[in-house]
Design brief:
- It is a multi-pass membrane protein.
- It is found in: Cell inner membrane.
- GO terms for molecular function: amino acid transmembrane transporter activity; symporter activity.
- It is a single chain.
- This protein has 428 residues and is mainly α.
- The protein has one domain: Amino acid/polyamine transporter I (Up-down Bundle), CATH 1.20.1740.
- It contains 17 helices and no strands.
- The N and C termini lie far apart (72 Å).
Length: 428
């Protein structure tokens, strides 16, 4: 009798332990989220002085954790363990809405992948020219080499993508932290003097600064493209305990994100004035580029490109998983409507070829419209990440158990603020 009673507890305890795969996914989540957007976050957040920074520090963790936990729970609510987000959407909302949201999901992530292909090419080209003082190879060749290198990791499979991202996290975190500490002697704390509710540098006052900072935060901490792959992998690994395990992994990943990013943001803002940050925004450059020019610091000039390259590479790989999932979903739904089917491995090869050719072409052409495309994807990301899971909690029976929490209202509020601020930025 004693054996029968203790056996389930032993199984539960064993399953509750932290595994190596949990660490790999935790770092993979961090790697997808913390990319190039972080390099612009200090500029927007610091324009209004200390109050926006304090508010951002307070809401960063709950905003990031509760929204991504909601999307994870949504994916896990599917009846089949292998269903990704596109299939769960169709299960809960019907075939027609499933096709619409799958298409929106793809077009929310794919333009960001194109942006990263351009960004990695520009960063390496600039590094070769300005730091190494060498002539850069033809742009088409350079772009092809870089993208083929990243796609080689992709071809090795999802687990290799996540492992590569988790490895890239370490040099990125170290470089970001060292840079934040390096800036401490340059702190002048002029931002502490800017605490009024009407700051000229903010371009309209404190509340407007806070409002427009929310979308930058959403983008800077966003790792929704990898959430579906993460949820499916953990459900296959942990079964019914997947939700608890996913929530725990997300919590540690977000603590790591918030600590490292906020340390970097505060250190950058403390060594510059709001007027300096306004100038950086007018020049449309990253905070690292502005710091290198502002302090005439060779150290930053050399470190900045490496931080940017690692950040962009991590985010490219993470966003590829989401873009591939979206593209596969669109193709599958088109074929199913015609009564046709394609093997998963063959579809993945077709997707890889499409991604390689289009990212290479866009990286070679280097169009300026990518920023607009990325901004247009912002409202869709906010809808899928913040609003869709909360709507499902209210309407889908499998999600009803998560209703009645104040965190749900908080997520909806942040989502609406993000969408309204992005819309304002587009049309004003």
């Amino acid at each position: 009798m004693d054996t029968t009673q203790t056996h389930p507890i032993e199984v539960s305890t064993r399953r509750g332990t932290w595994r190596r795969t949990d660490t790999i996914w935790m770092l993979g989540l961090y790697g997808t989220a913390i990319g190039a957007g972080v390099l612009f976050l200090p500029i927007q957040a610091g324009l209004g002085g200390m109050i926006p920074l304090i508010v951002m520090a307070i809401i960063a963790f709950p905003m990031t954790y509760y929204s991504h936990r909601g999307l994870t729970r949504f994916v896990l609510s599917g009846k089949n363990s292998g269903d990704d987000i596109t299939e769960v959407v169709e299960e809960h909302f019907g075939s027609g809405m499933g096709k619409v949201i799958t298409l929106l999901y793809f077009f929310a992530i794919y333009p960001i992948l194109l942006t990263y292909s351009v960004a990695i090419t520009n960063t390496v080209e600039s590094f070769i020219t300005h730091q190494m003082h060498m002539p850069a190879p033809p742009r088409a060749l350079l772009a092809l080499i870089l993208i083929v290198g990243l796609m080689t990791i992709v071809r090795l499979g999802e687990q290799m993508i996540v492992k590569a991202m988790s490895l890239l996290v370490f040099p990125f975190v170290i470089a970001l932290t060292l840079l934040a500490l390096y800036l401490i002697p340059h702190w002048n704390l002029s931002a502490l003097q800017t605490v009024s509710f009407s700051t000229p540098q903010a371009g309209g006052g404190l509340w407007k600064t806070l409002w427009l900072t929310i979308p930058v935060m959403v983008f800077s901490f966003n790792h929704s493209p990898i959430i579906s792959s993460f949820s499916v992998a953990k459900r296959n690994e942990y079964g019914e305990q997947a939700e608890q395990k996913c929530s725990r992994i997300l919590m540690f990943a977000h603590i790591m994100m918030v600590f490292t990013v906020m340390l970097f943001v505060f250190s950058c803002v403390f060594c510059l004035s709001p007027a300096d940050l306004a100038q950086a925004k007018a020049q449309n450059i990253t905070i690292l580029s502005y710091l290198a020019n502002h302090f005439h610091a060779p150290f930053i000039a050399w470190v900045a490109p490496f931080i940017a390259m690692i950040a962009i590479s991590k985010s490219f790989l993470g966003h590829y998983l989401g873009a591939r999932e979206g593209f596969n979903g669109v193709v599958n739904k088109m074929l199913h409507s015609r009564g046709k089917h394609i093997e998963h491995s063959k579809l993945n090869r077709l997707t890889a070829l499409f991604m390689l050719l289009t990212t290479w072409l866009v990286a070679t052409l280097n169009p300026n419209v990518l920023t607009i495309i990325e901004t247009l994807g912002g409202p869709v990301i906010a809808m899928i990440l913040f609003l869709m899971p909360m709507y499902a909690i209210a309407k889908v029976p499998a999600m009803r158990k998560y209703s009645g929490h104040i965190s749900n209202a908080f997520v909806v509020l942040i989502g609406l603020i993000a969408i309204s601020a992005i819309s304002y930025s587009l049309f004003i």
